[in-house]
Amino acid sequence: MKLDAIDRKIVAILQEEGRMRTNELAEKVGLSPTPCARRVVALEDRGVITGYTASVNQEMLGLPISIFVSVELDNQGAEALQLFEKEVQSFEEIMECFIMTGSQDFLMRVVAADLGSYERFLQEKLTRVPGIRSIRSRFALRRIIKRDRLPNLSH
Fold first, then answer.
1. CA atoms within 13 A on the CB side of 53
2. Residue 51 in contact with residue 125, Cβ under 8 Å?
3. pLDDT digits 0-9 by tens, 48-73
4. Are 139 and 124 in contact (CB under 8 A)?
5. Is 109 exposed, middle or buried, given 0-12, 13-18 or 19+ CB atoms closer than 10 A?
6. Contacts of 149 (CB under 8 A, 6+ apart)
7. Dihedral, CA atoms, 123, 96, 134, 86, nearest 10 degrees?
8. Averaged pLDDT of the chain
9. Do 5-46 and 58-140 show the same overall fold?
10. Could you tell me if residue 149 is left (phi over 0), alpha (psi between -120 and 50 degrees) or otherwise beta?
11. E-assigned strands of the chain?
């Protein structure tokens, strides 16, 4: 899928300010509002722009702890991987989940209010998922970088 320079500029600007009005966005990319709006809709339809959300401070919402959880399954067959993916979809504590190469099958970023709430997440949810061989947790001490904008969009 090829994006031209204007599409890339639209995406870059919307990553910085997703609530920008079409008129303002059109001015920044050098288009009139109607063609700019059509391009945004096309980018959404093509799946380049997948949605709009508010960035929130997890600490201010009472979830100051981030835990990186590695999961290794007993079996790495397609059915076992799909079952795990299906089972964890409803766990709202999981902010991101990746299937991995190497010795771990999945890596998740989990948020929690405190150690007790993380322990409850483990005992009442994650350890009840069938097929898990091991779970390893690493607690983040402090976030150094958080980016929402992807690199090299102007190229």
1. 7
2. no
3. 999 998 889 999 999 999 999 999 99
4. no
5. middle
6. 12, 15, 16
7. 80
8. 94
9. no
10. beta
11. 65-73, 94-99, 106-112, 132-139
Q: Position 122: which residue type?
A: L
pLDDT grade, residue 154 (50/70/90)?
low
Q: Under a CB-based contact definition with an 8 Å cutoff, are residues 11 and 152 in contact?
A: no
Options 3.40.50.1240, 1.10.10.10, 3.40.50.300, 1.10.443.10; CATH of 5-46: 1.10.10.10
Class of domain 58-140 as given by CATH: alpha beta
CA nearest neighbour of 46 among 3, 101, 4? 3
Distance between CA atoms of residues 47 and 115, nearest Å: 38
* Nearest in space to 92 (alpha carbons), one of 58, 139, 60: 58
Q: Do the beta carbons of residue 109 and residue 94 sit within 8 Å?
A: yes
| pLDDT reported for residue 153 | 59
Task: Read off the pTM.
Answer: 0.85
Express each pLDDT in 115-140 by its tens digit: 999 999 999 999 999 999 999 999 99
